[in-house]
Amino acid sequence: MTEEKLTELLKSMTRKEKIGQMIQLDGGCFKQNPSEENVTGPLERLGLSKETVQLCGSVLNVMGAEQVVKIQKEYMQKSRLKIPLLFMADIIYGYKTVFPIPLGMGATWNPELVCDAYRMIAAESAADGDMVTFSPPADLIRDARWGRCLEMASEDPFLLSKFSAAMVKGLQNDGKPGKSVASCVKHFAGYSAVQAGREYNTVDMSERNLRQNFFPAYKAAVDAGCELVMTSFNTIDGVPATGNQWLLKKVLREEWGFQGVVITDYAAINELMTHGVAENEYEAAHLAINATVDIDMRTACYGNQLESLIQNGEISDEQIDQACMRILQLKNKLGLFENPYYGCMIKKETLTQSAFQEAALARIVANRSCVLLKNNNVLPIKNHPKIALIGPYADSKDITGLWAVFADREKTVTLRQAMEEHFGKENISCDKGCDFLYDYESLGDFGNIKVSELSAMTEVERKQQEQKALENAQRADIIVMALGEHILQSGEAGSRTDITLPRPQKELLKKIHALGKKTVVVLFNGRPLALKDIEPYCDAILEAWFPGTEGGHSICDILSGDYNPSGRLAVSFPYDVGQEPLFYSQFSTGRPASKNVDRFTSRYIDCPNEAMYPFGFGLSYHSCAYSAPVISQKNMMPDEELTVQVDIQNISDCEGTETVQMYLRDKVGSVVRPILELKDFRQISLKPGEKQTVIFKISEEMLRFYRQDMTWGSEAGTFEVLTGPNSHELQKSEFQLCKK
Ligand code: NOJ
Q: Which of 345, 483, 564, 705 has the fewest Cβ atoms nearer than 10 Å?
């Protein structure tokens, strides 16, 4: 439809119809024909009339081509102006084929690969009815206590931005009809900085921190062309994001030029009341519309209040027109006026074909996301020894993690299946050995996962399981323990104060260790864990996150040496929860900790300041030697570009992938600068003995920051360039930025 036609359409709409476009309801309101059932179901709970539902413009989390076609058909028949519904869903890291959680994808340090993954995710979900997905989550990881670390790729603004842009590009796939979905970046803004890591808690930080560290990844998504932005639940300087004019109008729309649709997070307009900035729905709707929020996700605020707000002269028809037009434009971009069923018409044969490619890619991404944290000469497992596979994740399909709500469990390959395939069934014994947790009650239900259905093992079962596992372990040559957080322990509303492995699993590991056999721990979790208390009880640790549909195969590829691990942490792993919020790019403080014990320095008396496994870290089966960085010139004028050269040599007899990292430190600034900032990285593959030179460039633009007066720019002075395989093992050189 042309823009003129769209404008005509808008003109022909009644005010009620326009407001209807600004309401999003969930499937419950549509699944049945408008019937009596509806009136006593979700509609009544929301307090919306049947008429409003009939005018509503988008649907939340209904998937399945048949269902989508049915709802759309019925809706279109009744729609006066034939404006199709927009179907939106949470396809966070995979639809039926599930890829590793974003935290794992971050560990690939490979945004191009992740872009390919999201292209496939888009095609698979569009073919089953999705048109918009609430992804990428682009909240900067700051605190491992926060459960939603699972959904984010990194603690580093630069790396996170690379991934958020890649995800948008993959999902939107140049708008290929039926093979792309519109992307919605979230949660704008600063959602991950909740105080004490407690979900939905207050966020309070300086504007400098927000702009310097938190904004870049959302901005990268906007610059990559994402069509929607979702507001976050938290406050920004005392004002909840959903009613925050500074954030949405000034920063997002005016400064960044975002012209797309702003949607709230789930019921966030209502929460303006519980936050205590609105007395009632009328005031809440008023705050949100004034902040240019276009779509109200699942509340009655817009549906019941916008008209009165106009009638009372509090807001203008123009505000409604603008919001409605943005939504119509999105529908038009997706081609819905021509084909309201979007990707649902893709032929079944094409889908089966691409399912194979998806699985293959999911395996590659999962291979690259696993991070080898420890290896005491035990991996890879050579030949075909007797292996005791033990632990609650040994044969579990939950390795797709919490947010893969549409995962095809049939297709999910467990570690047991993969190890039996690879090492031979006769060589593998498999036991749970223990329960995930002693107590499931405090976890709370999540969608279809009901805590009441998660029965903890009885005392007798526990003893039997443990006994069997110990016996099998005793008979084995090597033990592989598949341990981790229960899926409900991370993800949304999965904040924890204890970020170690659950107790029953630690207890079992210690008993297994006492047998004196080589023991490998494979971890499944959705956050950085504190591993100090399990590290001494095993010979190797492989961090597998929640690796997705092909997780079993991918892990087995690494255990067997078919894949040489290349994952590098994109987050810091602490020794102890007390170090949180922990991230590598800290300030040095006025009293930096020194190697000698000096009481009056910034340190803990009972724990190192640094991470146990630092940002950028990961082991491989090969090893490399890095040269110190060589800078092309010692002085740099602002219009010049420096080169930094690093030689890397594979000093082993095994081919492998290295992620060469370059950090900078601005030694003196008008405001305090971080001790390290990642500025570039390069992934290279090296044959045994091979030497390669990586050349990085440094431009003045890379040296900019929010200066004391809040202007964005660089300052003359000394900069350190630090290069190496991770944020701890770095070699440095220096240069001066001169001003003309
Ligand atoms: C709440 C979550 O915060 C958000 O990430 C998600 O997209 C919405 N619910 C919709 O399901």
A: 345
